[in-house]
Write a structure and sequence with these properties.
The protein has 330 residues and is mainly alpha-helical. Among the domains are: 76 residues, Arc Repressor Mutant, subunit A (Orthogonal Bundle), CATH 1.10.10; 73 residues, no CATH class; 34 residues, no CATH class. 32% of the residues lie in helices and 6% in strands. The strands form 2 sheets. A two-stranded antiparallel sheet has the order 1-2. A two-stranded antiparallel sheet has the order 3-4.
Length: 330
Amino acid sequence: MGTPQITVPPHGPSPAPGDTTPSSGVTHINFRHAAGFTVIGNHLAQHRGLSLAAIGLAAHIQSLPAGARIGIKHLAERFPEGETRIAAALRELEAHGYLHRSRVRLTDGRIVTRTVSYNQPGADAPTASAPQSRTRRSKPAAPLPTPEPPPRETGTEPRHAPALTPQPQPLPLPLPLPVPVLAPAPTARTTPPPPLPQPQELTPELQRMATTLLADLRRHAPQLVLSEHDIHALAPGIATWLERDAHPDTIRHTLTTDLPAPLKHPAKLLRHRITTHLPPPLPGPQDVAALARPGVIVIPLQNCDHCDRAFRSRHPGHCRDCRTDLHTAA
């Protein structure tokens, strides 16, 4: 009975009176940073409208030095999130005023994207002032004692103290000029693509031949794999080529030659080639007959008197081979 039996694990010490440590939730253990830190406001860290990825990305951008690259591809190489998630987080920060992106044309003609990060959206721009040290404040200097005037000499005129030159006041630093935001120049992406050519009459036979030709392209170029939706969307353009008497081999050669590597959007490439390389309609018989209009000299056909072969000449006689044989026999 003298041996104590321990059947319950020991409990932690009960909180002392006046202790502010919470009984549940997070407990902070903070140490003062001496260097290498960034001040982040609670309006960002506890923002109700931003996702966790956007808050973390904003904190990362505010910790970077001026001039650091924060493009989507650069951030995707730095973090495990993909380009789609990073682009969505940047749009969130831009919508809530933490980022501002603009397209600016440089003097050499290049167009670049300038990004401005705001650590506190909506606040006025800070005025330029002399930097203050973060270390201990220096004590105000003690006032200098006023010098006593020199004693006057008898029989002489009093000497006047030299006039003190006023010290020039430091001029305030100029405010930073706002960055000019230029309108983005029109590019090929902003210009709508030309419409897909349409045949005069899309018959079932033309529709069948066009879809068959498009579905068969992957046998000649494996990267030209099209979905059923893309095939039905591009079929009227191929039908226009067939309507203009273009041979299927000619169409296939035009669509599969000199493909870029890698090919990301095969349907867009085929739409561009079908539209830009469309041949004109073949001339009709009346157009060909118009070539033989008055003023154009056409040498008629003659039949050879010896071999009855047709040849062009203004006068009847023998063809070139028969004339050569006659001269040789002579």
